[in-house]
Specification:
Chain A is an all-alpha fold. Chain A has a single domain, classed as Arp2/3 complex 21 kDa subunit ARPC3 (Orthogonal Bundle), CATH 1.10.1760. Chain A contains 6 helices and no strands. In chain A, helix 1 (2-19) crosses helix 3 (48-65) and helix 4 (72-85) packs antiparallel against helix 5. The radius of gyration of chain A is 16 Å and the shape is globular. Chain B is 37% helix and 26% strand. By secondary structure, chain B is an alpha+beta fold. Chain B has 4 helices and 12 strands, in the order αααβββββββαβββββ. Chain B has a 6-stranded antiparallel beta barrel with strand order 1-2-5-4-3-12. A 6-stranded antiparallel β-barrel of chain B has the order 6-7-8-11-10-9. The radius of gyration of chain B is 25 Å and the shape is globular. Classes of the chains: A mainly alpha (168), B alpha+beta (287). The interface between A and B is large, with 51 and 50 residues.
Chain lengths: 168, 287
């Protein structure tokens, strides 16, 4: 129960930071993707199930507020969360290399999917431009943010696991 | 112990089945939202009462704080400016007297021409921008007015004197606006002084240079030039006629020698949108 409420709260904060706060930051209009960080982190920290649910809810919020096609982002985020769950077995909290690699790859996959399904379909074939001006900056910011907030997410997760152990 | 075991059993549905089920749900939702408008009411309402209030609060707090810090910094500068402006006011008052006379004359002439459907007469609702698309791929944004304030899908949105975009989805207290620089945006427009029609489409790539593109301009007499004003056309199905879009920046002949294309500089500064006006009058269409 604690976990569910905390998770919803984190997703909400992630979404709000991304859509509201980012407008005042001088980053050339490119924002790091907090929801991917959350989805991916809980994917490899907690396993397929949790990653899947968090991805589903994150995607659904974006779908409802911004997507034309409800379900598209939910599906993409959910699959990313689930895929990250496969790495739960080789995850050690002290090691930051795996999280950075996983989050970066998730971000990359996410960008490719968006490009293919929403831009390539329209005949916008100049992939180089999108790579250079959107995908790369987004990934760089996301890595930077990951290094900063990874510890915070880790602590939240440990705190939740503590509570669950005590209640069990 | 027994309780523990039953709890564990309950959780133990293999996650790949759940994944499959949720994927199917997603696909069903996609099909439903594409084919019908069933998905366009309930989720929007839920979002309106959960996510949007936070977003509004942050947005208001942010602009209040920004306003405060600005005001302290600018106090001194404003004093100097104030003195200058007082002088200018005197000059301008004299000019206004002249212009008022002209204005009455203009009003009379307009009446004679029955040009009373200018867009300054469209009824509008002011709204504040409270969020931007969560991602870097699209140019859509959220505003803080919705069905409760009479806003409907397909209403036109302006900022200052220029066209910003169109309302694409709406909840009780929020609405999403797709701006004209978005990749999905296509508008039927015309050159103001020749009434030649064209299609104006947004492009993510071009907007980083501050332009949007136009295509299919028919200009057989070669009279359209750089700097001509472009407005929404009469034949557009969703946009009201005569709203300013921008000025022609560059114009090229297409290889078919029949049509022309080029780039337009929009009049609206899309980077710094804060207050927008939603036109509550909708384009009359054949039902």
């Amino acid at each position: 129960m604690y976990r569910k409420i905390t998770m919803l709260f984190l997703i909400l904060i992630g979404y709000l930071i991304q859509s509201t706060m980012i407008r005042v930051l001088p980053m050339g209009g490119v924002a790091p993707n907090f929801l991917i960080i959350l989805t991916s982190c809980f994917g490899f920290m907690r396993g397929k199930g949790d990653g899947m649910f968090i991805g589903f809810i994150s995607g659904l919020i974006i779908d409802i507020l911004f997507g034309g096609l409800i379900g598209f982002y939910a599906l993409v985020y959910m699959l990313i969360g689930y895929a990250n769950g496969f790495f739960a077995r080789i995850f050690y909290p002290e090691d930051i290399k795996l999280p950075v690699v996983l989050i970066t790859s998730s971000e990359l996959v996410y960008c490719f999917v968006i490009y293919i399904f929403r831009f390539l379909i329209q005949g916008k074939v100049r992939f180089g431009y999108y790579m250079l001006h959107i995908i790369l900056p987004e990934i760089v910011y996301t890595i930077f943010v990951t290094i900063v907030i990874y510890k915070v997410i880790l602590n939240i997760n440990e705190w939740l696991e503590d509570i669950e152990r005590r209640n069990a | 112990m027994a309780r523990n075991r039953s709890k564990r059993n309950k959780i133990n549905i293999p996650s790949r089945y759940v994944l499959l089920a949720l994927s199917v749900i997603c696909i069903i939702m996609m099909v439903l939202s594409y084919a019908t408008d069933m998905m366009s009411y309930a989720p929007q309402a839920v979002a309106g009462y959960t996510v949007i209030p936070f977003q509004k609060a942050i947005s208001y707090a942010g602009s209040w704080l920004a306003g405060r810090s600005e005001s302290i910094k600018e106090l001194e500068a404003l004093r100097v400016e104030n003195a200058e402006l007082k002088e200018t006011v005197n000059d301008l008052t004299i000019k206004i007297n002249d212009l008022t006379t002209d204005k009455y004359e203009l009003a009379q002439l307009r009446q004679l021409l029955s040009l009373d459907e200018r867009y300054s007469d469209y009824p509008t609702v002011g709204a504040r921008v409270i969020g931007k698309d969560a991602g870097n791929w699209y140019s859509t944004f959220l505003i803080d007015k919705g069905t409760n304030d009479g806003i409907k899908v397909n209403m036109n949105v302006m900022a200052g004197t220029g066209l910003v975009g169109i309302v694409t989805s709406v909840g009780p207290n929020w609405a999403t606006v797709r701006s004209i620089i978005d990749d999905d945006s296509n508008i039927s427009a015309m050159v103001l002084n020749t009434s030649d029609t064209m299609i104006v489409s947004g492009d993510l790539e071009l907007y980083s240079n501050g332009t949007i593109k136009f295509t299919e301009l028919k200009d057989d007499d070669n009279v359209v030039e750089q700097g001509d004003q472009v407005v929404t056309s009469q034949i557009s199905s969703k946009y009201l006629p005569g709203i300013s879009i921008g000025y022609i920046e560059q114009i090229n002949s297409d290889s078919n020698n029949l049509t022309k294309s080029g780039f337009i500089t929009p009049v609206v500064d899309f980077e710094h949108l804060d207050i927008v006006l939603v036109i509550t009058q909708m384009k009359q269409t054949k039902e």
